[in-house]
Amino acid sequence: CTADPLEAGQAIEEKPGRHVLIDLAYATITKTKDKLMLCQSAQEVKAVLLHFLENLYDPNEAITLINEAEFLLWTQTKQILAEKAGVQIDHVREYKRSTHLWFLQMRPFMQQA
């Protein structure tokens, strides 16, 4: 039987399972921001983003971009908001809410095991 982390008082991981994709998207948008601001259509935006990703040959550069974005999105932003306003970032709050609802939905099935 798997215990409900919310009842057990255990901390739930605040990053979604696929947070790396969020980090990569954020890094891509921030690196291409100047070019994106000059775009006049969705086709131009798509071309800029694809060009950036297609020219990202070095895996070490991709890993560095993802790590920097991860720090900005999940660590630094959280610390700044917690210090200044005492609120959570939207995607962290939404993930916690979704996880809580999932555990509520799955609790009867966990108890059967």
Describe this structure in a few short sentences.
This protein has 113 residues and is an all-alpha fold. Helices cover 74% and strands 0% of the residues.
In sequence order, what are the helices and strands, one letter per element? Answer: HHHHHH
Query: How much is the radius of gyration in Å?
Result: 19 Å
Content-based structural category? mainly alpha
Q: Oligomeric state of the chains?
A: single chain
The strand count comes to 0
**What distance separates the N and C termini?**
6 Å
Largest sheet: none
**Which stretches of 5+ consecutive residues score pLDDT under 50?**
1-12
Portion in strands = under 5%
Q: How many H/I helical runs?
A: 6
What's the helical proportion of residues?
over 70%
| Shape summary | elongated
**Average pLDDT number:** 80
Description:
The chain is mainly alpha-helical and 113 residues long. 74% of the residues lie in helices and 0% in strands. Helix 2 crosses helix 5 (59-84). It is elongated, with a radius of gyration of 19 Å. The model is unreliable at 1-12 (pLDDT under 50).
Note the topology.
Layout: H1 5-8, H2 19-31, H3 33-37, H4 42-54, H5 59-84, H6 90-112
Helix pairs in contact: 2-5
Task: Write out key terms for the chains shown.
single chain, 113 residues, 6 helices, elongated
